[in-house]
Amino acid sequence: MKNKNKIGIIICDRYRMCAGGKCLRSFHDREGAFSIYKKDEELELVGYTTCGGCPGGNIEYAPEEMVKNGVQIIHLATGFIVGYPPCPYITFFRDFINEKYGIEVVIGTHPIPQKYYKVHTKLGTWDSPEWREIIQPVLANEKIRLSYD
Ligand code: SF4
Fold first, then answer.
1. Is the dihedral of CA 22, 27, 31, 36 positive or negative?
2. Which residue of 33, 80, 82, 96 sits 20 to 30 Å from the alpha carbon of 54, by its own alpha carbon?
3. Centre of ligand 1 from the C-alpha of residue 86, in Å
4. To the nearest whole number, what is the mean pLDDT of the chain?
5. Does 3.40.50 match the CATH number of domain 4-147?
6. Residue nearest to atom 7 of ligand 1 (CA)
């Protein structure tokens, strides 16, 4: 029998008007952070919301709703990583959700779009060892990054 993973996505509120196109495309195509799931593993999206705006008040409550829908893994969207500046609370949110709800948290959803990659590379945003580790699942290659521009 196929595994079924129940997924929640929380996006950075700066992108609150986003219709979720890139996240849902990568969810479907198993790209970026969704490449951790095998192609034959079924994924079900059981929650999608924003952090609520800085400093992320909805992070405290949104997982509770998702838990009611059986969420198993929560993804913090790639917008947390590529925003100007990236979310300063990203690792705290990951650790908080994991600690309070016992839910696995994955940082990232879709591959980093090339336009963000270029600017952040010039800025040196992700030069620290911590950031290099954070971006790894959504780094992809240039061809894929360009396809997410
Ligand atoms: S930077 Fe962080 S706290 Fe602020 S809106 Fe984005 S995800 Fe939320």
1. positive
2. 33
3. 8
4. 96
5. yes
6. 12
